[in-house]
């Protein structure tokens, strides 16, 4: 039976399901490797018979989802996999899935809700939902802010490998200062990230704009990597850092972030 020979095979019978699942498992394995792999490695890692593995790889190659490198006797992703991924991104799935969650969060908590992603050492805001009583704040859609100062940025940074954080902030000059608050060097940033990772959410109090605070929680992909953050931003003014962590708000933000993680097929970080 051909796994993706749609034109000549009636799809939908129960016998198709195991083959489909195995084919998808092969694709995920190829996508998760830095380079091409041998059929023997695929069979071993997925605990498949060699004959089944070769059959699946042959069907995937014929359909364009895999590529065979005969000189290397290895397989990698094909052009069709790239086209499928590109089509996925054109649909803006993250924003579409997040928007109704942010809408409900903003209405329920009466605060501005954002979806942000990391863009180098900056937090880039993709979606903003206002509460019923609109509030004017700096973090609008398309705005980029220093990730080490924003709650959304640090919610994601806290779950990156230390080497990646160091690469994003290689020197003291990397630490932009807006209000005099927030981490000013890598050791200080690492201390904050460690504390916020253990806490489960990130906060900022007038780090970006005096008189505003934020609470953020990370969104994870299927590999437990942080790919976005959901944030609530609200008016709050104190002369010196208050040390507040707003756990009640954080509970709602984390609930929304966990729901978005589930919607995209992600898995929360295990540690």
Automatic annotation (TrEMBL):
Residues 80-266 form the IclR-ED domain. Keywords: DNA-binding, Glycerol metabolism, Transcription, Transcription regulation. Transmembrane segments: none annotated. Residues 17-79 form the HTH iclR-type domain. The keyword Transcription regulation applies. GO terms for biological process: glycerol metabolic process; negative regulation of DNA-templated transcription. PROSITE patterns: HTH_ICLR, ICLR_ED. GO terms for molecular function: DNA binding; DNA-binding transcription factor activity. It holds the Pfam family HTH_IclR. SUPFAM superfamilies: GAF domain-like, Winged helix' DNA-binding domain. May be an activator protein for the gylABX operon. PANTHER family: HELIX-TURN-HELIX TRANSCRIPTIONAL REGULATOR, ICLR FAMILY (PTHR30136), TRANSCRIPTIONAL REGULATOR (PTHR30136:SF34). This is Glycerol operon regulatory protein. It comes from Lentzea fradiae.
């Amino acid at each position: 039976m051909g796994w993706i020979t749609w034109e000549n095979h009636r799809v939908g019978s129960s016998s198709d399901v195991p083959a489909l699942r195995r084919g998808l498992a092969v694709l995920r394995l190829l996508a998760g490797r830095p380079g091409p792999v041998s059929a023997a490695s695929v069979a071993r890692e997925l605990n498949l018979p060699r004959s089944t593995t070769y059959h699946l790889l042959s069907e995937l190659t014929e359909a364009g989802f895999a590529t065979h490198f005969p000189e290397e006797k290895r397989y990698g992703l094909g052009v069709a996999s790239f086209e499928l991924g590109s089509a996925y991104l054109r649909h803006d799935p993250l924003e579409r899935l997040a928007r109704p969650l942010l809408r409900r969060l903003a209405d329920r908590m009466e605060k501005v809700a954002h979806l942000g992603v990391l863009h180098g050492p900056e937090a880039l805001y993709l979606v903003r939902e206002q509460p019923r009583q609109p509030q004017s704040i700096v973090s609008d859609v398309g705005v980029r802010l220093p990730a080490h100062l924003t709650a959304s940025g640090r919610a994601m940074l806290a779950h990156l490998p230390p080497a990646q954080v160091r690469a994003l902030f290689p020197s003291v000059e990397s630490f932009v200062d807006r209000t005099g608050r927030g981490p000013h060097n890598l050791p200080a940033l690492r201390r904050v990230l460690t504390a916020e990772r253990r806490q489960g959410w990130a906060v900022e109090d007038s780090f970006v704009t005096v008189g505003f605070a934020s609470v953020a929680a990370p969104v994870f992909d299927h590999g437990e990597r942080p790919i976005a953050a959901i944030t609530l931003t609200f008016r709050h003014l104190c002369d010196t850092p208050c040390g507040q962590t707003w756990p009640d708000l954080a509970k709602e933000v984390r609930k929304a972030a966990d729901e978005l993680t589930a919607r995209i097929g992600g898995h929360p970080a295990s540690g």
